[in-house]
Amino acid sequence: MGVKILTDSSSDYEQNEIREKDILFVPIMVSFEEEHYYDGVDIDKDSFYDKLLNTDIFPKTAQPAPREFLKYFHEAKEAGDDIIAILLSSGLSGTVQSANIAKQIADYDNIFIIDSVHAVTGVRLLVDTAVKLRDEGLSGKEIYEKLSYLVTKLRSVVMVDTLEYLHKGGRLTKAQATLGEAVNMKPIISIDSEGKLFMKDKSLGKARAYKKMVKEYQKIDRDINYPAYFPYSNEKENCEELIKKLKSIDENINENDIYNIGPTIGAHLGSGTFGFTVVEK
Prior knowledge:
Keywords: Lipid-binding. This protein is an alpha/beta fold. Helix content is 41%, strand content 23%.
């Protein structure tokens, strides 16, 4: 008997990280019309952004089918293992729903499904915590209980550099996007308690956006027992500049905790996004 940890591709792990951390992985599909790819399996981040920036086709994503989870759930049941699935927010995707259907089919009590109510670095922080707790010898149920509480303390804020993909994804009207681009508007986005994106603030220009991002960070009473993670989409220098500014007010930041957003979420945000994920006390 042991503890298995499973996540989806919204966590943005590289394949070598998946092997090193000994986690199970279910990819989410991203499609450019008739070209279909499994995030993190047959398309990497560099290839994805190259396609994104050099085509007029808006990519679409599709949740995994229940069978993608069921094979891992059956393996855990046969081995008598606990299995913890830490997944993309149910407010953004039907991935959690697919996992719950698979759990019902597997009919096994030791399957624990965590709705991260987050994406990218929020999911990663939960998975990294689960790996640490597993390695310390905690049971699946104990890890599930700790993560369920941790979910309520996660805080993520990002700045979106372009409105194009929010418009194409139906989150902004064409008129809103056109007007916003004309005045160089930079939305500052967070995630609510239901795991849905909302506009927390907006700024005219990137320089002002950095200042507002710093203010948002200062509003949070950060728990330094957990790392601060920094997501970016394609353009790393945006996030490096934010980290530089934040390190002047938080000496506990590690500039190496910076992670490129993959196709699952990058398809909806485009290039140039940057932000932070922390745990609040």
